[in-house]
Amino acid sequence: MVSKPYNVGIIGYGAAAKVFHIPFIECLPELEFYAVVQRHPKPDNDASKAHPGIKNYRGAEELVEDQLVDIVVITTTPATHFKLAKLALEHGKHVLVEKPFVPTSKEADELIALAKKHQRHLTVFQNRRWDQDFLTIQSLIQQSTLGRIVEFESHFDRYKPSIAGSKAWKTRVEPGGGAIYDLGTHLIDQVVQLFGLPKKITAFLGSQRLETENPSGYDDACTVLMHYHDGMMATVKVAVVSAEVEQLRFWVRGEKGSYKKYHEDCQEAHLTAGMRPDDPGFGIEPDERHGTLTTAINSTFTAKPYPTLKPTASTTYQALYTQFANAVSGNGEVPVKAEDAREVIRLVELAKKSSDEGRTVDI
After folding, report:
1. Which residues of the chain have pLDDT under 50?
2. What is the pLDDT of residue 2?
3. CB neighbours (10 Å) of residue 163?
């Protein structure tokens, strides 16, 4: 029985807060959705109407000065993450930052040092570690079902050839922007979780859209090759002009077999559709979307559907918030170490350097 839940204040009330954070906070008895910073409420987008009883602030300064706030969740644009996380830590709050952590590894180092100085917990919302297809691959690798892995591909490919007229921050050129920060950080984090840091990196960043369809010229696509000491190659790819009925998500090849998976994890789609994390069926993937496992025995190949792991309370995105609440209580570590997220940002910086200079970069 929880004696007193931790009060959570959220900075930002956009899609990230509504879809990926508030539902999980509201499902945990250890946490209380206490306050929000929403600068410009509108009749059809007003946190106070959607969540009666919470405190509403117009600025982050007001929120962090509230002594009853225990945890601050930052869901604003990446360019603001450093300033807001620093502000919250300096006011003695535990902090959860949306990905990407911050635009630079230098900023990440400063926040890590600040969290240690103030003895506060700092974590980053790398929720894709709890994608069911990723956990399925992790299980296959741990069980040596595929044997020695020689090549790993991870994709976020879509067909959106035009964004003309879009005012979304993701389509602007700004610190922490572009495909590699937006989706690439998820894919890179997953690779590092499976295989550790690579020894070299080769990357290609740019725009797949026509100039007229991408007025700002931001990097809407990326391909990153991560070279490992044993010869294994991991490729992470984000594309916006991919005309496919079914988009490839994973392709893992090893000496004993391969695993190929189409379609994205369904948790985001379920949350967007209004499902709660504790609803029956949340995160369960339809059978027709399962991946294919091909095994090789004496040069004889056998291919069959391989069921995606069924989620439990400890293996969905809910686990991230549960572990963070436990860490704040003094029970265990944070779900995503800020040091890990810092390494992902460092790899992004090196990928940008590789692309800019047209060469492979040592880690």
Report:
1. 1
2. 56
3. 18
Q: In this structure, are strands 149-157 and 200-206 parallel, antiparallel, or unpaired?
A: unpaired
Q: What is the pLDDT of residue 1?
A: 46
Phi, psi of 228 (to 5 degrees): -110, 160
The backbone torsions φ and ψ at residue 226, rounded to the nearest 5 degrees and listed phi first, read -110, 115
pTM of the full predicted structure?
Answer: 0.96
The H-assigned helical ranges of the chain are 15, 22-27, 47-50, 60-65, 78-90, 105-118, 132-142, 179, 185-195, 267-272, 318-328, 338-357
Residues 168, 173, 175, 176: what is their CA dihedral angle, to the nearest 10 degrees? 60
Query: What are the tens digits of pLDDT across the range 272-294?
Result: 999 999 999 999 999 999 999 99
How big is the chain, counted in residues? 363
> Strand ranges (DSSP E) for the chain?
6-11, 31-37, 55-57, 71-74, 94-98, 122-125, 149-157, 200-206, 221-227, 233-239, 248-254, 257-262, 291-297, 300-306, 361-362
The strands making up 361-362's β-sheet, listed across from edge to edge, are 300-306, 291-297, 257-262, 248-254, 149-157, 233-239, 221-227, 200-206, 361-362
Amino acid at 274: G
Mean pLDDT of the chain: 96
Assess contact for 178 and 238: CB atoms under 8 A: no
Q: How far is CA 201 from CA 65, 204, 299, 335, in A?
A: 43, 10, 33, 26
Per DSSP, the three-state class of 307 is coil
pLDDT at site 165: 72
What whole-number distance in Å separates Cα of residue 281 and Cα of residue 125? 23
